[in-house]
Every structure is written in C-alpha cells, then in structure tokens.
Amino acid sequence: MLSKKQARMLFIVSTGLFAIVFLALTYDSMQQIPARTNAHNLSASAIRGHEIWNDNNCMGCHTVLGEGAYYAPELTRVYERRGEKWMKMFLKNPEAMYPGQRKMVQYNFTDGQIDDLISFFKWIGEMDLNGFPAKPTIKMSSAQNNGAVSANSPQVFKDVCVACHSVNGSGGNVGPALDHVGSKFDAAYLNKWISDPQAVKPGTAMPQLNVSDADRALVVEFLSGLK
Ligand code: HEC
Ligand code: HEC
User: Mean per-residue pLDDT for 61-73?
Assistant: First the structure.
C-alpha cells in the first residue's frame, strides 16, 4: 500500500514524465513537418489555390488530408489519380464530365484560378503522409497507365477518355469499351460524335468535351484503327 505522500509523488513524477515525453514527441513531429510537406515547393500559385479552396468551402463536400466532409471524393491524391489535363477539363465544366448525374458545383473559375487549384492539389499530393491515403487504383495521367492504352494511344485519350472508356481492359467503365469501335463507326462519324455527342444522339450520357481540333483528329485516327 502506498502512503498518501508516496501516491502524490507517484502522481507528480509520472505526470511530469509523460508530459515531457508528449512535448518531446510533439516537438519532433513539428520539426518534421517542413520536410514531409515539402514546404520549399509551396509556390505562390499553390497558396492562391489553397485560398480558393477555403473561400469556396470545398471542404463542405470534400476531404483533403482526411479533413472535411464525406459527400464527395477524397482529394489528397487527386493529382496523381486524375492528372492535370483531366482536372482542368473537369473543373471548367464538371457537369459535362458526368452529364445529368453528378453534383459537383460549376464554379466558373478562370483558367488562372484552375491552374492555382491544380498547383495546390499537386503540392498536397506530394506530401509524405506515412502512406495515407492508400495509393490510387486509377492513375489516368500518361505513362502511369498500364496496359495497351499507353502503347499507341494519343495523349488526350490517356488524359481524358480513359476516365470512362477502356481499351484492352485498361480504363474506366462509365462508357462502352472501345476495342472494336473502328469497325463499328467510320472516321467522319467518330469526329462528329466527339465534337458534339448530343447532336448525334440526343440525351446521350457521353459528355461534350472541350477537345482541340488537333487532339480530336489524333483520337479519331487512333479509334479508327481499333478494328
Ligand atoms: C456541393 C458539394 C461539392 C462542393 C462544394 C465541391 N465539390 Fe468537388 N465534387 C463533388 C462531387 C459530388 C464530386 C464527384 C462527382 C464527380 O465525379 O463528378 C466532386 C469531384 C471533384 C473532383 C474530381 C475528383 C475525382 O477524383 O474524380 C475535384 C478535383 C473536385 N471535385 C474539386 C473541387 C474543388 C476545388 C472545390 C471547391 C472549389 C469543390 N470540388 C467543391 C462535390 C462538391
Ligand atoms: C465522363 C465519361 C466519358 C468520357 C470522359 C468520354 N466518354 Fe465516350 N462515351 C461515354 C458514354 C456514357 C458513352 C455511351 C453513350 C451512348 O451510347 O449514349 C460513350 C460513347 C462513346 C463512343 C461510342 C461507342 C460505341 O460503341 O457506341 C465513342 C467512340 C466515344 N465515347 C469516344 C470517346 C472519346 C474519344 C473520348 C475522349 C475524348 C470520350 N469518349 C470520353 C462516356 C464518356
């Protein structure tokens, strides 16, 4: 049995000891933050992106670093998952990407604001978070795509179309697989379809994407070859 005095001593010594351990660990964590977050990469553009993120209360629906609301996807690794081109197109007009089904707000951001947001996501995405969150299962941007999509498909296909379409089993399944689309449609049809899907098939769920003429020509050539 401890005497009253001994019990008090035990309380004081152990509380003091663990307070010191706690402060030391906190200090150690604080010391690591600049390296883990790559603070030196925090550009003016990424800072502006963070301000846009806060001003528009994106956290009302999304989380970054696990913080925020759970209505919409976690965005910590969105840069790695989606890539720059896709994000640019999406943020310009989210509704076009997922016609009639999704609830991401149309903000009418300028190109500069979109670039700032993307810098912000890139910076967040490069943080060392001890493996949080799990590595994305989809990686749309360029060389990271596995399978045949990366072999001979044009960049715009890898950046945007694979979000919804697959070739050789690699890509999304929102739209049909395009393995034999070249024997189904001719180049003129494909060209018209990609420039304005609604004009070809009113009510279709294929979005009208803001693809440049040059990119469209490349993608039509690629698809025509998929016999
Ligand atoms: C009202 C809720 C809401 C708000 C506010 C909101 N979003 Fe979203 N966002 C969504 C939903 C829902 C999705 C997923 C649907 C989709 O894929 O279209 C999404 C998807 C995204 C994606 C693509 C994620 C992926 O991997 O497909 C990005 C990037 C994004 N939002 C950025 C933002 C930014 C930046 C803001 C603030 C400026 C914001 N969102 C505000 C609801 C919201
Ligand atoms: C957000 C999802 C989405 C994206 C991104 C998307 N598509 Fe589609 N696509 C669809 C859907 C859904 C359909 C089916 C439409 C229908 O049948 O009404 C479709 C249909 C098609 C078809 C017709 C296929 C067939 O067998 O009938 C082609 C060709 C096509 N898309 C090409 C493209 C190309 C090229 C891109 C990139 C520039 C692209 N799509 C991007 C969703 C998408």
Answer: 93
Q: Which residue has the tokens 């964590």?
A: 29
Residue minimizing CA distance to atom 34 of ligand 1: 58
**15 pLDDT higher than 60:** yes
Looking at the CA of residue 87, tell me the nearest atom of ligand 1: 29
> By the 8 A CB rule, do 37 and 129 touch?
no
Three-state DSSP at 196 gives: coil
Amino acid, res. 177: A
Ligand 2 in reach of 211 Cβ (< 6 A): yes
Could you tell me what percentage of the chain is helix, strand and coil, using 3-state DSSP and rounding each to the nearest 5?
55, 5, 40
Cα 17–chain centre separation: 44
Decide if 131 contacts 70 (C-beta within 8 A).
no
Q: Which helix (H) or strand (E) holds 64?
A: strand 63-64
165 with 178: CB under 8 angstroms? yes
Q: Which residue has the tokens 């969105």?
A: 78
Token reading at 171: 């890509």
CB 195 within 8 A of CB 201: no
Which ligand gives the minimal distance to the CA of 72? 1
- Ligand 2 lined by 205 (C-beta under 6 Å): yes
Quote the CA–CA distance of 117 and 123 in Å, as a whole number.
10
Q: Which residues of 102-121 are buried (b: 16+ CB within 10 A; e: fewer)?
A: eebeebeeeeebbbbbbbbb
Give the global pTM. 0.82
Nearest atom in ligand 1 to the alpha carbon of residue 98 is: 18
